[in-house]
Specification:
single chain, 30 strands, mainly beta, 30-stranded antiparallel sheet, 0% helix
Length: 411
């Protein structure tokens, strides 16, 4: 989200410096006690042609007035006390300011131009990159700034429109951020502070993102319509300007079914209702923006029955509640993302009684079973090509039969 650093939040009414018309009795003595001094110059007919004024009595000339036919037409003023004029007021026949030019950066060239009507400014133009061409235009009503236009790229093309209240405080900005010739970003202000933004991020003519700010201009909430429907399908929430939660309507049901949770700006958890039934069936946990654990309700009946642990994005271990009874009775172990062995507690006594080993291709090699649940292996099966090719009785077994299958498959 971009900030409008190029534009002032308020545009005070343009002040007009008093122009000098002739003699000392037109001045009011400065509060610090200096007495203004004016020196007029005349032509051979005794008519005044110019005037030099020390308006503060400092001994230094700061105002130069040019006359034509005895009437002042131009007043040049040194406002920064460097001995050179930097502001020029062009005067009408009735001694009113019609136009003002100002050199605001002391480079010897005018970069602000102000037009007046009946002593009040009606338009100001400003050259912001010293190329001699105006980049910002300010419009006044009754002497107060009400609107401004600006070429943010300084190429003569207006891309920012600003609007002000009666006090000259910014109330709204409209910006063409896409170069489509119309506003695509609308910023709203309260008491001169950013309160809300509406954005057409695709330049389609339809608002698809809304941002809301607190009194300190910190982002508190953002909504987005990613699917172009015109209604939000993403909702993000912030504290102290930092994201803490984001919800998404991934199924187009008009309500969120995915939620992301953040801690210190980093993703910590993701929750999803994959079927849109109103019940979570998938939770992902993150550390340093990387997944470390996943919980799943594979039967989508309200219980998490599979939990997977990861490291650097690779699966390390998986626990499965095969009976959907609220306890994990099957544990799978992985290396480099490959299943290497399994342990299965078939009778729910809290310890495994079936052990399975896999080769590097994921093919089953051995399955060992504790058939009488004494904690010791009684029988061992050997596999090749997914089939039993050998059986070894390690200890006297309670019952003879085929190896017990391990279910379910890896989700």
């Amino acid at each position: 989200m971009r900030a409008f650093s190029q534009t002032s939040r308020s545009l005070p009414t343009m002040a007009v410096l008093p122009f000098v018309v002739s003699l000392l009795n037109l001045f009011v003595s400065p509060v610090w006690g200096g007495k203004p001094v004016s020196t007029p110059f005349y032509d051979e007919n005794g008519q005044v042609i110019r005037e030099e004024v020390d308006s503060t009595g400092s001994g230094r000339i700061d105002t130069w007035v040019t006359y034509q036919d005895g009437v002042p037409i131009l007043q040049a003023v040194d406002t920064n006390k460097d001995g050179k004029p930097d502001t020029w007021h062009h005067l009408s026949a009735d001694r009113q300011v019609e136009r003002t030019e100002k050199d605001s950066d002391d480079d010897g060239k005018s970069d602000i131009w102000i037009t007046y009507h009946q002593r009040s400014p009606i338009k100001a133009e400003q050259d912001l990159n010293t190329d001699g061409r105006a980049d910002r235009f300010i419009f006044y009503e009754k002497g107060k700034a009400v609107r401004a236009e600006e070429s943010l790229k300084r190429n003569g093309k207006i891309t920012l429109w600003s609007f002000y209240d009666d006090a000259g405080v910014l109330v709204r900005d409209e910006e063409d951020t896409k170069g489509v010739g119309r506003p695509t970003l609308f910023s709203h202000y309260q008491e001169g502070k950013l309160s809300m933004r509406e954005e057409d991020t695709k330049g389609s003519g339809r608002i698809d993102r809304w941002s809301y700010y607190d009194k300190d201009e910190r982002l508190t909430r953002r909504e987005a319509a990613r699917k172009g429907s015109g209604r939000p399908d993403v909702w993000a929430y912030y504290e102290n300007g930092q994201i803490i939660k984001q919800e998404e309507d991934a199924l187009g049901q008009g309500r969120p079914n995915v939620a992301y949770f953040f801690r210190a700006g980093a993703l910590s958890r993701r929750e999803e209702d994959t079927q849109g039934t109103g019940r979570l069936d998938l939770i992902d946990w993150y550390e340093n923006d990387k997944p470390v654990k996943r919980q799943q309700d594979t039967r989508r009946q309200g219980k998490m029955d599979v939990v997977t642990y990861l490291r650097e994005g690779a699966i390390q271990r998986q626990e499965v509640d095969t009976k959907y009874e609220g306890r994990y009775d099957l544990v799978r172990f992985f290396e480099n993302g490959r299943l290497t062995r399994e342990e299965y507690d078939t009778n729910g006594d809290g310890r495994p009684d079936v052990w399975v080993s896999y080769d590097k291709n994921g093919e089953k090699l051995f399955q060992e079973e504790d058939t009488d649940y004494t904690g010791r292996v009684q029988v061992r099966f050997r596999f090749a090509g997914g089939k039993v090719v050998g059986k070894e009785v390690v200890r006297e077994e309670r019952a003879d039969g085929p190896p017990r299958l391990l279910i379910p498959k890896i989700p």
